[in-house]
Amino acid sequence: MGKENEKVTSALQNSDMEKASMYQVAEAVLFSFIGIRKKSDLEHDAAKIKPVQIIIGGLVGGVIFILSILSVVKLVTG
Amino acid sequence: MAVIQDVHGHGHDHPTGIMRWLTTTNHKDIGTLYLCFSLVMLFVGGFLAMGIRAELFMPGIQILEPEVFNSFTTLHGLIMVFGAVMPAWVGFANWQVPLMIGAPDMAFARLNNWSFWLLPVAALLLITSFFVPGGAAAGGWTFYPPLSTQGGMGTDMMLFAVHILGMSSIMGSINIITTILNMRAPGMTLMKMPMFVWTWLITAYLLVLVMPVLAGAVTMVLTDRNFGTSFFNAAGGGDPVMFQHIFWFFGHPEVYIMILPAFGVVSEIIPTFSRKPLFGYSSMVYATASIALLSCFVWAHHMFTAGMPVAGQLFFMYATMLIAVPTGVKVFNWTATMWRGSMTFEVPMLFSIGFIFLFVIGGFSGVVCAIVPVDIQVQDTYYVIAHFHYVLVSGALFALFAGAYYWLPKWTGHMYDESLGKWHFWLSMVFFNVAFFVQHFLGLAGMPRRIPDYALQFADFNMISSIGAFGFGLTQLLFVYIVIKCVRGGEKAADKTWEGATTLEWTHLPSPAPYHSFETPPVVK
Ligand SMILES: [Cu+2]
């Protein structure tokens, strides 16, 4: 069990070394809003993107989502 | 393959009889307690529903005084949401999360015990409030002020009960989050977790986010009632509409708290009985996360008639309609999973397919309600009642039944009675639709909710609806009989009861699952 754990954590650390770019995070968040993602892309995401990145990306995505609906509303009512 | 484990032969002693259940820290015991509690509450809430439908069987007032009728609708909603559906899902999480991720137990075993034993206290407060002077709370399950700032001590008891139930939910979710994030078997990465575990992880985060908001709303109503504050009292400078905003910021995500674990259960059952892996597992995870996030931006669609600028109405209308996108992705994925699978139709599968069929109807009527001009027509009518019963009865409750039939063999070691189960499904399916489909017509024709009497033109549909409701209620007694029969005996269940099952509880554990499982974690490849 110990060995397995070590393997898992070392794998995690390795993947942490190369950080995902902002573009990759934005892409992952965008796809999550629609709910579709290719499996290979997802595995790529899972390996590269850190949880902190995805949480911040999700919150920023949420804000952009709200702002874009608001601008549509402005357009319609204005 | 099955790692046979010590079936409780080892020598630590723990209490037996009632003390076993009072002091237990075992996730299986606590799961059983949760499930039994929620079943009892399902029948308490069901009894209130039968009272409502009996009064509405004919025009005029025959059985319940109007004040009592109001208490019945209020407590029916509160008990079903907080007493039946939510504890049932926590019960499933207690049993299944450790088994599915290969953990020996929940992370906080004593907290787990405390989370459960708060529930009967709250239930007692709710039920006994019927017998105090002034009767039980009668302002609707949403307890809007000023109705909830009036009323007798029954309302205070209800508010206190909601506090306790909220506390229990928060502790339960912290426990579930910690268990999932820290106690997975080696090799079980997040993206290898079963869908049921994923949906519960996201649900637990939603609970931690919105339950404190509900607690805030309840506390403000409590101090408005008892300590002279004026949060929601216009005469004192407060604003009753603010309550609605706070309540629904909790209330809408609450719908997803009740339905996301249902998505998880169905996502386990459909692949098993289609003998194919879940189509688009990763998009399911993404769709669940985005449904959870979006559900926090749509609350005011419950308040279109409360007075809101047009810009606000449009914002919440658009946002609400957009939730249909990730939900549609899920329905597509379930259908695609069944496509060209070698399907069989055991009872769990029947309830899952029934779930998809009826949940889609509820989803569509939800989009209808999201359209502002339509909603202004159907607000507070039976159309809304029909809509959310399609979401919560044929959504959450059918998925609960599906999950119960699916895992009963693992829990008890016995097969349930397949033909009785099929009877249970078909009777539920028919009576549910008889009871609730006609309510769409009643609502469109303008019949208001929460009223004990109605105009004569509504008489026929109400009688049909009541007959359906009585049938549906009686049918659930059959479920109790099936469960008791299954617990007490029956054909021995195989370790891997379902041919197509792939999760750890089927591949690594005997049936029934031993009292202590996965003391040595399995290795997931
Ligand atoms: Cu809502």
TrEMBL record, chain B:
PROSITE patterns tied to this protein: COX1, COX1_CUB
Topological category with respect to the lipid bilayer: Multi-pass membrane protein
Pathway the protein acts in: Energy metabolism; oxidative phosphorylation
Listed InterPro entries: Cyt_c_oxase-like_su1_dom (IPR023616), Cyt_c_oxase-like_su1_sf (IPR036927), Cyt_C_Oxase_1 (IPR000883), Cyt_c_Oxase_su1_BS (IPR023615), Cyt_c_oxase_su1_dom (IPR033944), Cyt_c_oxidase_su1_bac (IPR014241)
Class in the EC hierarchy, top level: translocase
GO CC terms in record: plasma membrane; respiratory chain complex IV
Keyword terms, alphabetized: Cell membrane, Copper, Electron transport, Heme, Iron, Membrane, Metal-binding, Oxidoreductase, Respiratory chain, Translocase, Transmembrane, Transmembrane helix, Transport
Keyword check for Ion transport: no
Nucleotide-binding recorded as keyword: no
Catalysed conversion reaction: 4 Fe(II)-[cytochrome c] + O2 + 8 H(+)(in) = 4 Fe(III)-[cytochrome c] + 2 H2O + 4 H(+)(out)
GO molecular function annotations of the record: cytochrome-c oxidase activity; heme binding; metal ion binding; oxidoreductase activity
Domain named Cytochrome oxidase subunit I profile: residues: 21-525
EC code: 7.1.1.9
GO biological process, one term: respiratory electron transport chain
CDD domains per record: Cyt_c_Oxidase_I (cd01663)
Compartments (UniProt record): Cell membrane; Membrane
Record field: transmembrane: 30-52, 72-95, 116-138, 158-183, 195-222, 242-266, 278-300, 306-329, 350-374, 386-408, 420-442, 462-484
Family: Belongs to the heme-copper respiratory oxidase family.
Task performed by this protein: Cytochrome c oxidase is the component of the respiratory chain that catalyzes the reduction of oxygen to water. Subunits 1-3 form the functional core of the enzyme complex. CO I is the catalytic subunit of the enzyme. Electrons originating in cytochrome c are transferred via the copper A center of subunit 2 and heme A of subunit 1 to the bimetallic center formed by heme A3 and copper B.
The protein's name in its UniProt record: Cytochrome c oxidase subunit 1
